[in-house]
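Box 3.1 A note on notation
Throughout this textbook, protein chains are presented in two layers. The first layer is the amino acid sequence; the second is a token string describing backbone geometry. Keep the layers aligned when reading.
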Amino acid sequence: MMEGLSERSVPYNVDAERSVLGAILIHRDAIISVAPWLHPEDFYREAHAWIYEAQLNCYQRREPPDLVTVAAELERQGRLEAVGNIAYLSSLVDAVPTAVHIEYYGRIVERTAVLRRLITAGGQIAGIGYEGTEGVEDALSRAEEAIFAISQRRVTRDFVPLRDVTSDYFDRLSRLRATHGSVIGVPTGFSDLDRILGGLQRSDLVILAARPTAGKTSLALSIAYNAAVRDDGGGVPLGIFSLEMSREQLLQRLLSIKTGIDQQRLRQGHLNDDEFQAVSEAMGELSESPVFIDDTPGISITEMRSKARRLHAEEGVAMIIVDYLQLIQGRRTESRVQEISEISRSLKGLARELDVPVLSLSQLSRAVEHRTPHIPVLADLRDSGCLAGDTGVYLPDRGHYVPIRELEGQTGFRVLGVNTETWKLEPATVTNAFCTGVKPLFRLRTWLGRTVRATANHKFLTIHGWKRLDELAEGEHIALPRCLPGPSQQSMSEAESDVYWDRVKSIEPAGREPAFDLTVDGLHCFTADDIILHNSIEQDADVVMFIYREEMYDPETDKQGVAEIHIAKHRNGPVGKVYLYFRKETTRFENLERFLDYPEAGGGYPR
């Protein structure tokens, strides 16, 4: 029942709250059933929220959350008297005869919490309507964010029995066997690329990066055209978020791809009768294709996810394209580096939630221009950095530091990073260790004597989030590990946090040397030279591809029109390089098989 129930009362159920807390106090394992999804803020009474928080703290320390330990935790926090002392905790034990039904009680607490948040969101939405100070689209976006924030709190994935996993995998394997290993994802239309990737796979985040003018938008649109605008009428529905180009510009490019007419002539309308007829017919065909475009400039990641979710529900899209990552607005503003990392994680979350590939374009840093050859590597992704070869990376399974240069090419080993939600150090697996080329380095010193050499764009954990080295100021706090566990020491210190805050003493140039970086799953950071460091934005991606065209750097090259697509990361398959032909006039990428032999690529020049 609802305590104090009336026609306009706030939803809550004190009896259910007391039953949850009492069940945990009488049975130490009862909390396991609710801890993953029930939160202290779900409780209506503040005293109940404090008690549940104390129970969670005991549970996380692997202490039994019983009457004694919970009372001690509340006493330590200075809250025991405020909740009613031991007498009130004892009354909770008496309130429930068994812990068997704790999940049922917990769901009541969660449901009433959701209803209260809906009431609050309704008030916020009403306020937006009464204000009337912004455009309709902005108002709708803010209203959607209020509702989305509530739904996001309830998105969880539970354990599934292995029999369900094996059943799904067997179905997939059967399809692969029936098609002899052909494309089972969204086809890119490029035979060599599809051979390596098997098409763009469901739930994958695919990063396609290049320097400006290399053709990343053109390649993405060529993939979109090949996937959605098919002659057999079986096109794949897809959505395009275009933050850089307008919908009319995208249509013009698709028309150029479809008709083969020079973009410049389309832009100026210099068409003869036959070409105008071809454009008219192409527009009719494109209008029937399942392509959906949103060209909102500076769209937020929250609004993008909301729109993608609606589009998927209404049209069943099988792929999302984002052009491009650095133009998206994140929810955090204190650090653009932190914001980009959040956006990258959100795009991966979107791919998993909708179970479709998300192809996101990304800019590369200028570092590509300052070395030879100009072929991109993973560390060239904007907002990523790298370290000197002698930087010691801490390996918790061995209990000592190893120079990062000695880890190059290795995978599967564990490093030690910080979970910024719990502020505890945790092991995480490295999926890539690689050299990024010769780069200018800077030496950072702290007041406690820590020293590390890194590139200007490498990120350090500060009190205000992740910041690049060139954004740090003298005296600014950065995170250090308080205690390093080894093979014989698995527990951390008794301190509230495993992080200690040191101060930056100096930053000065430290020469040019080969530099290195790691890709770390999960935590996206690692401990090196006794400092906590971040790594590149590609950690959330399942596939990372780069475009390299030699003619951009050598106008006299004999590789005119030839584009190298470097698959630098492929979480579930091989990496490699494929060659495509790029038609500048129509900004279309094509398979090289259509051209004369090109010795290295197996394709060739146009006839």
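The chain has four domains: 1-157, 185-363, 385-487+495-535, 544-594. The domain at 185-363 is CATH 3.40.50.300 (Rossmann fold).
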